[in-house]
Amino acid sequence: MDTDFRSRALTVIVGLLFLSAIYTIFFYAPTERVMGIVQKIFYVHLSMAFTAFLSFFIAFICGILYLVKKDIKWDVYGSSSVEIGVVFISLTLFSGVMWARPIWNTWWTWDPRLTTALILWFIYVSYLILRTSVDQEGKRAAYCAVLAIVGFVDVPIVFMSARIWRTIHPVVIRSDSIDIAPSMLLTLAITMAAFFSLWLLLFRLKTNVALTCKRIRFLENRMEGGD
Amino acid sequence: MRDTLLIIKKDLLTEFRKKESLVSMVFFGFLLLVILNIALGIGRELDGEVAAGILWVSIIFSAVLGLGRVFSQEKENRCIDGLLLSPVESEQIYTAKTAVNFIFMVIAEAVIIPIFFVFYGDRFARHLPMLIVVVLFVNLGFSTVGTLFSAITAGTRRNEVLLPLLLFPVITPLIALAVKVTGSVFEEIPYQEYSSWLYIIVAFGFIFSGVGYLLFEYIIKEG
After folding, report:
1. How far is the C-alpha of B218 from the C-alpha of B223, rounded, in Å?
2. What pLDDT score was predicted for residue A68?
3. How far is B149 from chain A (nearest CA, A)?
4. Could you report the per-residue pLDDT of B125-148, keeping only the tens digit for each?
């Protein structure tokens, strides 16, 4: 019951954070001078992109931990993380396309960030396809761990190689400065917190379901064995 | 080292007896060159980068055919179990299989690239030494990742159908770079302008040699 309570508390926190994110985005943050109302998608877009990237990084770490420790829980964590990451990266691509049409006057351009996001989408969707193609648990876990590692190692190479094409994507966050107004920065911080907490909630629910499934299967097997 | 060479020798020997992979690789590459020519409109003068794109699509797609065979033929009659039982480290198996894939690619390319020159104009053949350098480094990147992934797909239900689905997303940057650099070579652009792209191709090859070498053990033991 303790975990149930914690999940509920987290749900409440996620709800509150999202309400404040929506409030700050639409009523607190100023409307951008050139882009107008369309710019507001940026807060959600960037937060989702970061959360997606975080998911793939966690899957990478879980992949290494699984191969080293051979504990199936790391496979559950890794695969849950990838599933959520795929949802977020899809939404990132989608919101980016929505924004690009009025601002760039084109749905898509082969910019390093866009290309990297798209190739990441391909890599991790192929990860999900691989999961459905292997039946044995241990084998599936090892294969997926390897793919999660290879996929993440590929990310910097994808980004570097995508510089072949010219860029028109705005660079808001540089290594030494952040190029937006303080009120916008606060809005971004709140939205980002909302998405991180949502990620945490989804991750908890997803891993709980997966671990419960495993527990049930284990008990079923034992009952059949006891007959 | 001796064991690695023995596995390479064994694989090359079976291939030269049956000629299954190489014939299908070359045939398919040839076919793709024709189909892509039709797709772009026959008799059109192509610029360097488009021609490079055609060449690489043909090479990569034909190479995937050979890649899938390397492990699936070991699965037949459970040869892979024998290989794992023998006193050979799994790293050596990986090195050998990567080398075999590399050699298959070189042989297929030795036929496909001349055919490409015949169809698309021998003006592209002027910088052949540089083209060979590019091709060899792309082969390195392709065969290191490809060998790792073909070991994965050989253990799945969907086997060779799955291989391109897993492999292509990861090697997309490699293909993009290969097209860029080869296009620059065809267009006779000075080396300094595309050398940094070539370095990324080289880096790709070496990074994934290391990654494959480290991870292969975990895959093959699950077989």
Report:
1. 9
2. 93
3. 8
4. 788 888 999 999 999 999 999 999
CA distance B79 to A156: 37
Contacts of B204 in chain A (CB under 8 A): 157
Q: Is the ipTM of this complex over 0.90?
A: no
pTM reported for the whole predicted model: 0.87
d(CA B217, CA A69): 14
Of B155, B172, B177, Cβ closest to residue A139:
B155
Distance of alpha carbon A58 from alpha carbon A83, whole angstroms: 12
Average pLDDT, chain B: 88
Encoding tokens for residue B2?
Answer: 């001796």
Residue B145: partners with Cβ closer than 8 Å, 6 or more residues away: A150, B167, B170, B171, B174, B208, B212
Inter-chain touch B197–A119, beta carbons under 8 Å: no
* Contact map slice: B 138-167 vs A, CB within 8 A: 145, 148, 152, 155-158, 162, 165-166
Could you please report the per-residue DSSP string of B48-76?
A: HHHHHHHHHHHHHHHHHHHHHHHHHHHHG
Q: Enumerate residue ranges in chain A where pLDDT < 50.
A: 1
Token output for B157: 């239900």
The reported pLDDT for the residue numbered B168 is: 93
pLDDT of residue A171: 67
Tokens of B94: 């990986």
The alpha carbon of residue A116 is apart from the nearest alpha carbon of chain B, in Å, by: 9
Cβ contact, residue pair A153, B180, below 8 Å: no
Q: What is the pLDDT of residues B179-198, one digit of tens each?
A: 989 998 888 888 888 888 89
**Tokens 């570097």 sit on residue:** A160
Contact assignment for B197 to A164 by CB distance below 8 Å:
yes
